[in-house]
Each structure stands twice: as C-alpha cells, then as structure tokens.
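FAQ: What does a multi-protein file look like?

Like this. Sequence, then tokens, then the next protein.
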Amino acid sequence: MKLHQIDGYIQSIYLVEYRYGLLLLDGCCRADIPILLNFISDKLNRPVKDLKLVVVTHMHPDHAGAAHRLRKLTGCYIAAANVKGQWYQGLDGALMHWTDLLLANWVARRMKKTRQNLWYDAKLKPDYLLDDQERLPGFPEWHALSTQGHTDRDLSLYHPNSGQVYIADLMVRVKGRYIPPFPVFYPKRYRQSINKIIALSPKSLLLAHGGEIVPTPEDYQYLLDKSPTTPTTHWRSVKTKFKRAFSAT
C-alpha cells in the first residue's frame, strides 16, 4: 500500500495505491477532478480507470462534490454510510446545500484560490452502503467507522495494519489547535465519535483540513473540552447573530 496526500482545492486528497487498483478516501470537490486525474495519469503513470472506489464520508462540497463525476469518468464505484434518506432533504435541505456551497467558496477565497464551479448534485446515489466496522468493498484492509456528529452520516476510514485513520472533518486544525468542525448537528454523537477514535489508539490521524497528525492526550482533551453541548448549526448561528443585533439596539 502507498498512501498519497495531494493538495486539493480547499482540502487534502488521500489516494491509496495498490497494484490492483486505487482507493480515494473521500469524494473531494468538483474542482479537484482534474487535479486527481492528472495525478493518476502523470504521477502514477496509471490509467484513470484504475480508480476503483470513492468513499463519500459525508455530503459537504469538499467531501462529495466530485463523486458522481468521477464515477462517470472512470467507472469507479461510490460507497457511503448506511443511513436512510438524503442529507439535503426538502426545502431546508436545499437551503443548507446552497449555504454549504457558499461556505466552501468563502474558504477558497480565504485561501486565495481562483474561483471555481463547485456545484454538485445534492442527492448522492452510492453503489455501496457501509455499516460500522464494515470492510471496504475491494479494499478489505480498510474498515469503515461510523463517526457521526458533524452530520448524521459521517464515516472515518481505518487501516489497522498501519494504524492510520482518515477522519475527514471530525476535527480541524486552527491556529495550531485541534477543534470541533462547524457545524456539529449532533453533539452527543460527536463526543462518542471522538472517544471511539481515542479508544483505537491510532498511530496517526489523516485530516481533511490539517494533514497527517499524531495528537497528544492533551490535544484530545482540548478537543473534548471544546466540543459543543448543544448543536452548532447554520440556522442557530443566524438566530444568535440576530439576537445579538437586537440586544445591541
């Protein structure tokens, strides 16, 4: 196994290389498609059809945005968490999808990236649905872990042989500290997910935003201390800002 970390549009891309095929640990941004395909063909000297499986850890633009297009271009399969329904459902879901796209564009501006089209289908159509602890189809060395909290369908991907875990957005690095992501829809599940990762005693964690890290016990404790006890979501943030604005008048 070779694990390749590639600089994506607004997040790290993790591509796992085997002789028999390539595994993409997350669904990336739409803007990452040429970056990834060029890496496969130019750096690895392999046909893009060698991409066999893309795992979508959750439905945000930098984790699901390229999945459908990659399947069309390469013939790969898509795997996601075995959770009923779609994340972006109904009118609220449509509004949240647009909000998440705006947030992704805002992050890109902060990173001084050229503006790109990040639009993607809000409804995922996976080929495989993964339960907690299930091995990835075609790549049995990797295990799917249910690590909900950020959303209702977050996955982490564990490789026991190396002790590495890709945890997507379970934590993010800001000013040298590891903190919870935004949003956290399910605080109780989120803390359970952090404790689940701690219990694995992994050798390293692979972050979508922060690279490969080896957290200390103090890092984990800081993260738990900063974990919200009530949901931190888009709508709650808007309501809080309105309340502050009215209280100041």
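And here is the next protein:
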Amino acid sequence: MAKEESGESTLTVLVATAANATIAVLKLVAGFFTGSAAMFAEAAHSIADTATELLLLTALRRSSRKPDRQHPFGYGKERFFWALIAAVSIFVSGAVFAIIEGVRTILGEEVEQTLAWVAYAVLAVSFVLEGISWLQAVRQVRAAAAAESTTPLRWLRATDDPTVRSVFYEDSAALAGLLLAFGGVGLHQLTGSSFWDGLASLLVGLLLTGVAYILGRTNMGLLVGRQADRATVLALRDALAARPEVDQVVDLLTMTIGTDQVLLCARLDFADAIGVAQLERACVAIDAELHERFPDLREVFLEPVPRTDPVMRHRVLERYGQGAADRLGGT
C-alpha cells in the first residue's frame, strides 16, 4: 500500500512538473509580447511551481531510502525538509517577484498594452494544463480521504504527505492566479490603465505568499516532530490497554518520522503477578500485534513503569493536563 501511494504521489508531481514547465515558457513569451505585469507575475508563479515540483521529486526519492547505521529511523523526514524548501521557493521566486512587479507597475508610468490576444490565448491554454494537473491532485486527495473514511478537507489538514498537499495548493493557487491575470489584462485593455495589470500582479504575489505560509507552517510542524493523528493514538491506547498483561497505560508518545511512518514509545504498568520471563514474552507479543494491526508503525518501544511513580505522573500531567492524562490511563 505504501509503495502504491508513493507511486501515485510521484505521478501527481510529474504531471504538475510537466504542466508548470510548459506554462512558464508560454507565460514568459506572452509577457515579452504584451508587456503585461500580470503575465510576468504569472510566469514567475509557474517558474516557482516548476522549481517546487523538482524539489518535491527530490523529496520522494531521498525519503524512500532504507534505514542505516547513521539514520536508524530512516530518511522519512527528508520529505518534510524538501517540502519546506519548496514552500520557501514559492515565496522567494514567485511571490516576491510578483509583488515587486505589481508595485512597480502601479507606481510607475503608464505602459501601453500590445497584443492582448496573445495573453488571452496563453492564459486559456495555461488554464487547461493547470486544470489537468489539478484534477490529478484532486483525484488522489479524494481517493486517500475515502480510504481513511474522512473528508478531503480534513485529509489535507491532517495528512503527513507534503507532496500531494503542496501540488494541490499550488495548482489551486495557479488557477486562481490565472483568473486574476485574465482580469488584470482585460481591465487594462478596457480602461487603458496599467494600474489593473499591476494590481493583478500584486494579488498574485499575495496569493503565493499565503500558500507558501500554509505549506511552510505545516512542514515545520512535521519536521519538529508531530504526533500521529488522533484516531491512531486512541487506537494504540485501546490496543495496549486491552492486553491482559497490562494494568494501565501510563504514558503514550508517538511521532511522525516520515510519510506513513510512526514511532511509538509506550510506558506501561504491567500486572504485578507476571515474572520477568513472562514480561519479556509479553513485550514481544505486544510488539508483533501492534505491527500487524498498525502498518504505519516503524518502531515500538515499551517501558515498564509503576503507575504510582510520582515523577512519571508529573511528567504526564505536565504534558497532557489532568483530563487527557485520565483518559490516557482509562480512568
């Protein structure tokens, strides 16, 4: 399943890369012919998106490497790192240029528009190509959301796959940007004022800034070390608490270490009646059961601790609060 999802993500990124590279060339040519600030801003937008997709392809390739001595938990977080760099790329190479170009056009001298039909033709072709890439991203988002019995919007907020999310937001912003550029070129042609062209460029820049912020913030959280989704955490707690050898789940720590890769550390109060040999066998059995039930688990660490230990109780209360700590222990 993980290989299928990785292959689907790669396809989504490849489609987006091909579309954006073609569109970038078309928009750049249209910008030179028409002198439109909005077209130049859109060209910068597509160049930024192309660079972003290349970074995401790097993320997919490097994050799939197997664990080794220096990286015993694998390279899964490289996907988050390169996705964060991609978000920075959107801002630096797309948003900043579009904002500067928009401000320059608004405050500068009036520029006569030429060959507006070239801009309209390029925008129309770009909308079709971006739409193809966007539909591929939407198809994957809907399929992934259906597989997890959730809505596409909730899946986008919770997913630990930054590649699909990045392509979806980029393509959504690209379609909105094309409409803004169309409006800017059209109003410039109708009014004869390049103000509208500059305003469209400025709005494209602000749109890209928003997308870069959303993607950057999400990937930063994953890099720092976000816990597994709430449903998985609760399911893990219930699975551990149901074991006959376990009296109480004292603490449960999870961390996303890659796309569909979770690390688990559980502190358990085992039944006092079991001996050392039984405890060892119980840990082996619990590890096997959890790996079978939760395919995303990569590493499982189990630590026997007494529930009455004041230091451990203080740590749990400090991290979760009284209510959450009680729910963790099943009280």
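Q: Is there any per-entry metadata?
A: Some entries carry free-text notes. For the entry above: The first strand starts at residue 246 and ends at 258.
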